[in-house]
Each structure stands twice: as structure tokens, then as C-alpha cells.
Design brief:
The protein is an alpha/beta fold. The chain folds into 3 domains: about 100 residues, Helix Hairpins (Orthogonal Bundle), CATH 1.10.287; about 140 residues, Rossmann fold (3-Layer(aba) Sandwich); about 80 residues, Alpha-Beta Plaits (2-Layer Sandwich). It has a 6-stranded parallel sheet with strand order 3-2-1-4-5-6, with helices on both faces. The protein has a 4-stranded antiparallel sheet with strand order 7-10-8-9, with helices on both faces. The chain is elongated and about 105 Å long.
Length: about 350
């Protein structure tokens, strides 16, 4: 019970109120005993209330007529005033310091999270996670951020939007992942600061949702195979990627700048995107020429990959046939990519 109360979000408000209630009940029972049961419990409770609040009403129980009654009343006044002052100051601090507003905001936020479906979960809003957040915002996809540090969550909202959905909790615990709606999510990003935490998170996430697409950060390049065996769909090593980026910037700087503009440029209109032919979609079995993708959507198809294959067919011709699960890599605006997804569904 005590552990539950300490962990409860309303604990700073509940604890002083429970202390005040306990003093009031004990005071009423004490008056009942001191008077030998001559008065009802509700009358004793009334006497306790006017004693604790020091309103100065008359002695309704006649306890001042006996030494025991006077001593008990004085003790109750001292203890009760202490409990009352503590409770009032705690409740006032709870409201003034913004805890009440924060709790209402978190409750409102949780309702929005409960309505999400097919969203992403970003675990860790630190140095790596914040860049993931910026890209997800640019892609206009729904997502939730989990971080156990309230200051990190506040910093992420300050750098992006106050309406950003965040959960303060340990992402390696099932409770926080359940709050984020992991059962309804389509992807999870593990960007915690420690490889061990990320590895445990990958295992936990796959246990809770085996259909989840999991992308994990791995600082130690030698541990990437462990993440794969643990169930990570993709593993990214910042040191490895950073080394490749440095070499590419040295050898082909203009190509790198071009891709940066496509993927992360300030101009949010153009993007390299991927579109999949859905199961039962009308595009399955048709060729690129049949679908007239360029005319109907405006996107440029730069590569196609068939289901179950790791090979990309670059610069495919009009005779290239699509199948269920085929993946198209395209260049275009976000609205054009959405139009292409519609074409893949309708054919």
C-alpha cells in the first residue's frame, strides 16, 4: 500500500490529505473514549473538526470539565494543528508549483495516445532521439516519445512542440510501453544511452508485439549481431555510420549534399520515400507503364525491390512488373507519395 502511494502521481496531494483524515478519525475516536461513549461518534467527529480548525465554538462534549478531557484536547490541538498546517502547505505547493496542471496535461495526453494507431514509439529523447523526433515531425507521422527524465521530455517539447506526446517512464519496463500503445504501434526506435538498455528494450518490445519494426542504436559495432539475434529489424551504429559519412563527404561531397537535401533539407517538400504494393492492391501484377505513375502522381521511381529479395532494380523501365509486397523507392513531395500509395491500392 505504501509503495503504491509513493509511486502514485497524486501522491504529493494524497499523502497530506490522508494524514489529515487519519488525525481527524483518531481524534473523534479519542473523544468518544474520553467521554466514556456518552456521545455519538458523529458528535465526537464534529468536536474534532471544530478543535482542529480552531473556530472557537463551545465545548459540545463538556470535555473541559475533566482533567483527562482537557489534556486530551490540548494534545489534539497541538498534533492537529501540525497536521493541518502540513496538509494545507503541501496542497498549496502542489497547486502553485504546477503539479496539478502537469497531471491534468498528462491525463489529456494519455487520452490522445490511447487513440493512436499504427504509430511509432521513440524510446529516449536525448542526443540521438531528438533528431529522430525532428524527422518524424517532418514526415508528419504519429509518434510517442518515452524518457524517464522529465527534463529531457520538457526539452524535447521545447525544441519541437508543446503538443508533442511524451511519457515520463523507463522504456525498458512493460508499463511504459503499454502506456505508449505498443500493441497498436507499427515501429519502435531504441535510442537509449546504453547498449545493454537498448538490447533489453529490443527483447521486451518483440515480446510485447512480434510484428513491430524495431530500429535500435548500437554504440559498440561488435555488438550489432547480438541486436539482430535479439529481434531488432535494423541496427544502426553511430560510429560506423559516422565513419561512412566522413568518407563519403571526402570523396563525393556533392552527392552527399544532394541526398541531405532529399532526406533532411530545410525544404520539406521533396523527399526520398518508399511505397509498398499492399496485399490485395490493384497495382499487383501490373507494370510501371500500365500504372502511369509519373503522370498520375508526379513522383519519380528510382528503384524497385521484389518481396523476399535484397536486390534493388535501379532505374526500372516501363515494362517492370510489380507484385504484392514490391517496394518502390521514389523521389517526390509528401503529398505525391501519398497519391502513389493510393495508386498502389487502387491500381
Amino acid at each position: 500500500m505504501l509503495r503504491w502511494l509513493n509511486n502514485h502521481p497524486w501522491a504529493p496531494l494524497l499523502q497530506p490529505l490522508l494524514i489529515l483524515l487519519a488525525v481527524w478519525l483518531c481524534g473523534a475516536v479519542g473523544f468518544y473514549i474520553v467521554t466514556g461513549g456518552a456521545y455519538s461518534l458523529d458528535r465526537c467527529a464534529y468536536m474534532t473538526a471544530i478543535t482542529l480548525t480552531t473556530v472557537g465554538y463551545e465545548d459540545v462534549l463538556g470535555v473541559s470539565q475533566t482533567l483527562t478531557g482537557r489534556i486530551y484536547t490540548m494534545v489534539l490541538l497541538v498534533v492537529g494543528m501540525g497536521a493541518t498546517l502540513y496538509s494545507v502547505s503541501s496542497v498549496t505547493a502542489f497547486i502553485v508549483e504546477g503539479h496539478l496542471r502537469r497531471l491534468f496535461r498528462e491525463r489529456k495526453m494519455q487520452k490522445k495516445i490511447d487513440n493512436l494507431d499504427h504509430h511509432f514509439i521513440v524510446c529516449g529523447g536525448g542526443e540521438t532521439g531528438i533528431h529522430v523526433v525532428h524527422e518524424l515531425i517532418a514526415a508528419a507521422v504519429p509518434f510517442v516519445v518515452i524518457d524517464q527524465n522529465p527534463e529531457v521530455c520538457a526539452a524535447v517539447r521545447a525544441q519541437t512542440s508543446e503538443d508533442l506526446l511524451t511519457i515520463i517512464g523507463d522504456a525498458t519496463h512493460e508499463k511504459a510501453l503499454e502506456q505508449a500503445g505498443i500493441g497498436r504501434a507499427r515501429g519502435l526506435v531504441a535510442t537509449l544511452t546504453d547498449d545493454k538498455d537498448n538490447l533489453f528494450l529490443v527483447v521486451t518490445a518483440n515480446f510485447m508485439n512480434s510484428n513491430l519494426r524495431v530500429v535500435a542504436k548500437c554504440i559498440d559495432y561488435a555488438s550489432m549481431a547480438k541486436f539482430k539475434r535479439a529481434g531488432a529489424t535494423y541496427v544502426v551504429s553511430p560510429t560506423y555510420i559516422g565513419g561512412l559519412r566522413i568518407a563519403s563527404q571526402l570523396l563525393r561531397p556533392n552527392v552527399v549534399n544532394f541526398l541531405d537535401n532529399m532526406l533532411r533539407g530545410r525544404d520539406k517538400t521533396i523527399r526520398v520515400d518508399e511505397v509498398e504494393v499492399p496485399a490485395g492492391g490493384g497495382a499487383a501484377g501490373k507494370t510501371l507503364r500500365d500504372l502511369r505513375i509519373g503522370e498520375r502522381t508526379g513522383v519519380l521511381v528510382i528503384a524497385v525491390r521484389d518481396p523476399g529479395s535484397d536486390y534493388f532494380d535501379y532505374n526500372p523501365g516501363g515494362a517492370r512488373q510489380l507484385h504484392e509486397g514490391s517496394l518502390l523507392v521514389v523521389i517526390g513531395r509528401g503529398s505525391e507519395a501519398e497519391s502513389l500509395r493510393q495508386v498502389m491500392r487502387e491500381g
